[in-house]
């Protein structure tokens, strides 16, 4: 831990020597919160900055960034896969990332994998940025954004709670009065949606007869004697503890009756992180809902809106983010329906589906993850394809059980994509790639072999 913090302090000192900083970040909830944490810390130090979001870091993007001739460049939530190229192209760059490292460590390169931590479960990009920010000034308030980033990166999935270095951040946030921790249902909309809408739009886990069905959700609540409204539609936060217990018990019974595994059912209930400085009854009060809101802005090419919300805009930016979020929830439910109707193909060591243009490339990974968690057995990773402007986007998702048996999707996707002229990488449990059109079959054959070797040797 000490050596990790030593490098965090060194990165902070490097950033503070700057008069202007270009922040480059990944275009998802973790990337948005990572960037905003650094930007807020820079503002506090009186340092000018600009921000650039990218879907994937590749040589073409590095060349564009180099042409901007930044005094100081800081990469958040990406960069470790191209560390050698970055440190050879830019003067004293800073990389604050949690994805798997390719090549050597460098002076201002903070990554948990370099210190024996797991970047999939112990800390996210936002957490890395947070530790650096605490050496720039007293920035304990940014613990809230760090938790939002970790949840957006699904770092809580394995145990239903945040652990490792994430836990250090949670504890600091609790101690300083920014975060409250409690156990609750994990469905989206607890703060904002009528209960029947919260259930209708539940997608992780998928609840048979309720997900995607307003009638089914209303009928379910009526059968339990839960009133839908008082003067207004009742939200989850408006229900009594006894009413909540009745709903949770009935949902568990329903999932069991449809043959769902304990692994899926456990995803219904877990630790919830309340952001005490945000207004009650808004998406921003619940850290998981905040992360979903941010993902919606990023996945629909409006990352700047998400950044503005993180930076404190509760007016126009928040209204636009809410509109994008409603579209995002509908698309996730439709994506799950597409996969259910079209079916999933199976190979010896993986399962896959090709969404083509039916699911946006920016959300196909989320749909793959929800499919793995709710619709198929977890004995093989799932791989999803979708059309992208630059080729074919590939997203892969696994389980901790598979990782414990030797699976490393980040490594497998990196090698398999390179073999067909693409690029890829990520975490052991989740990874992505971009490959040329028409190379899907060859890519799958390579990936299937690589995963087979990993599982055999694991």
Your description of this structure?
- Helix 2 (29-45) crosses helix 13 (303-310), helix 5 (125-134) packs antiparallel against helix 6 (143-152) and helix 6 (143-152) packs antiparallel against helix 7 (165-175).
- Helix content is 46%, strand content 15%.
- Strand 8 (345-346) and strand 9 form a beta hairpin.
- It is α/β, with parallel strands linked by helices and 458 residues long.
- The strands form 3 sheets. It has a 6-stranded mixed sheet. Strands 2-1-3-4-5 form a 5-stranded parallel sheet. It has a two-stranded antiparallel sheet with strand order 6-7.
Brief summary of the model shown:
The chain is an alpha/beta fold and 458 residues long.
